[in-house]
Request: fold
Amino acid sequence: MDTGSKILVLDDEVGIRYYLERTLARDGHHVVAAENGEQALEYLATQEFDLALIDLHLKGIDGMTVLREIHRRWSFTPVIVLTAHASMESAVEAMRLGAHDYLFKPCATVDLRESIRTGLLKRQGLVRSQTWQMNDASSPVSGPQPKIDPPSLEQSQDKNRFIQSHGLIVDPIRHIITLDGCLLELSPTEFNLLAYLVGEAPRVVSSQELVREVLGYESESWQARDTMRSHIYHVRQKAKAAAGRDVIQTVRGVGYALTESSSPFP
Reply:
């Protein structure tokens, strides 16, 4: 991976900050650590970083404010958001504001390194693109030249990354689904099933279609009903355990759809 990069780490938890500093330094990066938003803004006032790792929930100036300042002042700097399970909504908002990625705390080292690697590659691409634009703009023509705005990190994001419906947020890249901000611990089949229903909402989906699209094979109607019944049951149980309500309704004789009720399940 790329080494020698200058990385800002913002986290108010000593243990997390120490882990990030140690891991990044071991990979050859130069780390500047901040324990609060105020300190991070002081660094950003005079220094540009190759990448930033930012905790969202801080006392005083929060991570979202720091993210906006980085995007305003140093638009080439990719930001990786650090978030707890209960702050998925904030993570989605951060992605909309131009963050490169988000990681759940505590994050696996392999995920951290991969996110940093892709973030640094993105920065290299933005810098290279800006250099090409500036070189192309060089000409003997006299007079003021038009200003070239740097590419926006927000423009580079896949705007369709998150699928949302009825309190559910699906991140197919991280293979994560949350319900009302609560992480659902789903098997791969359960994830694909629920993600498909979210993507098709509010349409009612037949059992045969679910077997075909989720499990990858054709089946008779009665076989499909028997096959999906168990998967649907487990998704419902996990949703109720995590967020206190159901997420799937049965439309008798037709199939399944997301439940429209957002009230707690009795």
In short: The two ends are 51 Å apart (CA to CA). The CA atoms of residues 134 and 148 lie 8 Å apart. Residues 109-137 form the longest helix (29 residues). The mean pLDDT is 84.
